[in-house]
Amino acid sequence: MAVRIVRLGAPRAENEGLRIGTVRRPPRGVPKSEFASGDWYDAWFPNLAPSAETVKLAQEAKTPAQWTAFAKKYRAEMAAPDHARTLDLLAALSHTADFSVGCYCEDEARCHRSVLRALLAERGARLDPS
User: Shortest CA distance to 9 belongs to which of 38, 49, 46?
Assistant: First the structure.
């Protein structure tokens, strides 16, 4: 059992489990009825997406210092009690179920999901290494 960090829209891995979209908005131009079959996500959970203001920081980050500023702000958002409890729940579930969380960004290193991976690891989540 483990949580996998994925790019939404990429083909699903074997035994990936439920795919959770941690994005602010659904995929553009894709009918809701095709979210799961198109490998986008099975459940939309924008609660773990960065705020619009924080997303803008990530999109504008050109230097390591700017990326670090984004990560710090996103971490601060995820430290709020509701978000922290959700992260704790996902970390606990990773020991009993296979599921995935993800975003649309091509490069995980420049995506909030890299920070999400770290936050889950810090909470003891069992992470799929792939």
Answer: 38
Tell me if 118 sits within 8 A of 15, measured CB to CB.
no
pLDDT per residue as tens digits for the range 84-93: 999 999 999 9
CB 20 within 8 A of CB 42: yes
CA distances 85 to 47, 78, 96, Å, are 11, 9, 17
**CA pair distance 43, 30, nearest whole angstrom:** 15
- Whole-model pTM over 0.85: yes
Q: What is the pLDDT of residues 22-78, one digit of tens each?
A: 999 999 999 999 999 999 999 999 999 999 999 999 999 999 999 999 999 999 999
40-46 long-range contacts, Cβ below 8 Å, gap at least 24? 40/8, 40/9, 41/8, 41/102, 42/18, 43/18, 43/19, 44/20, 45/20, 45/21, 45/101, 46/21, 46/22
Under 8 Å between Cβ of 30 and 40: yes
Token couple for 103: 């975003």
